[in-house]
């Protein structure tokens, strides 16, 4: 999927005009569908899902002309420092998830919003060019399209990302808002941990999602915008996914999307033809390979595989020497479909491989397989058009139809999920403690720098009074003495700036200590942090 160029328009001006905005209105960010789903599936684990209420950042869109000049940038910076300090510094930036998943959104909408892996770095760059977005990551799979961001303002950040999603996909904002779910901070952390552990998957405990989360980190490495908070979140999510699978039996008997697809096909076929039905698999990637493996596990000994190149098919054939796997190139796809009873599709094609006009002239299948040609499409975007269902002798099933397979043993699945929740809760607290500890880093650095400036200045005065004939040993002793005094004096304040979960001190107490030190030593960390954020946005507009 191609992603258009980054949002254009006045950035800094729209930010700075917030000082003149009308009084803030209150917006409730809560998708009813998301809450209903979570209350059913997660109600056993959590005390409740929080629907965030935040002040809407109403922006007066001032008219701008030409490029942002240096003087206007500095002027805007000064306005922001004076008018927006409360908004951007007293409350830290928020981690926000804007998501659409198989639980809330039909496949026909998800496929339009899907972003191919090759486009993730570009998407991250465009998202971070938005006014209120500092960091970003994209998790786009056949079952979900989720964007994770660190936002300076929750409401404005969500609005900008939603508009960006609409612009890149062509899906109206109203349609996205109808299906999306929004999660903030602790809830966002909990969500990605559950995703990585396989708790939010259609197939509980399936392992493919963990590999997909790992891929987000791999692709994000070195990409500007895949910053410390987001990369830390995803790396911790990988740890959680591994730990849950190691310490619980959630993966025991778990199936993947591919195995569920095979199960669905067998459910729709008469039992007498399970091992004799003619199987065609289109696409020999990860999903296609898993389909082949599960077909073999169900007793299938012969199948045709259509793929761009023969290399992958040959590798699969080498792994399964007792199975007849026949390779055919893509240009023979329709000919192969004419000779198949069940067709599995799992390619990355952005356009359908089969439409009604392609299938209508195919010869009918035999009564032994139910007189229906089955298309099991596990691709997003879909490989088979829904219009094929209009034909009397064909049926199409997509990833959304797999719910029929995984609905079984629901109680057992929930019990396994409860075992995993204890681990996720513990890991969530550890991540939040790590993130809390980042809040005081600027103050710690400034306090140390402040103390070091005083130490060096006083040391120079002392050395000048002692004359030039003092020995190196004496100089070192005096220098060590000054460092020791400074370190001992700073030890107490530094201890009270710690918020890493190693003691009972709360974030609120730590932040109070931080603000007190800022005032006492005139460190001005808040304004400094704000200045860094806004200067970064100024630089973006000047590029």
Keywords:
alpha/beta; four-stranded antiparallel β-sheet; 22 helices; elongated; porphyrin biosynthesis; GluRdtase_CS; NAD(P)-bd_dom_sf; chlorophyll biosynthesis; 4pyrrol_synth_GluRdtase_dimer
For the sheet with most strands, the description reads:
6 strands, parallel
What percent of the residues sit in helical stretches (DSSP H or I)? 40-55%
Radius of gyration: 29 Å
Q: State mean pLDDT (0 to 100 scale).
A: 78
- Poorly predicted runs of 5 or more residues: 1-74, 80-90
Number of strands: 12
- Percent strand: 5-15%
Query: How many helices?
Result: 22
Shape summary: elongated
SS class: alpha/beta
Distance between the termini: 26 Å
If strands are numbered along the chain, what order do they take across the biggest sheet? 9-8-7-10-11-12
What does this protein structure show overall?
It contains 22 helices and 12 strands. The protein is an alpha/beta fold. Strand 10 (342-345), helix 16 and strand 11 (373-377) form a beta-alpha-beta unit. The longest helix has 30 residues, at 410-439. The protein is elongated.
Brief sketch in words of this structure:
The chain has 543 residues and is an alpha/beta fold. Helix content is 51%, strand content 12%.
What is the secondary structure topology, with strand pairs?
Layout: H1 12-16, E1 26-29, H2 32-41, E2 52-55, H3 70-83, H4 85-90, E3 94-101, H5 107-113, H6 120-128, E4 133-140, E5 144-151, H7 154-169, H8 173-179, E6 181-184, H9 186-197, H10 208-220, H11 228-247, H12 257-268, E7 279-282, H13 286-297, E8 302-306, H14 311-319, E9 324-328, H15 333-338, E10 342-345, H16 356-359, E11 373-377, E12 394-397, H17 403-406, H18 410-439, H19 441-466, H20 472-495, H21 507-521, H22 525-542
Parallel strand pairs: 7-8, 7-10, 8-9, 10-11, 11-12
Antiparallel strand pairs: 1-2, 3-5, 3-6, 4-5
Helix pairs in contact: 3-22, 9-11, 9-18, 10-11, 11-18, 12-13, 19-20
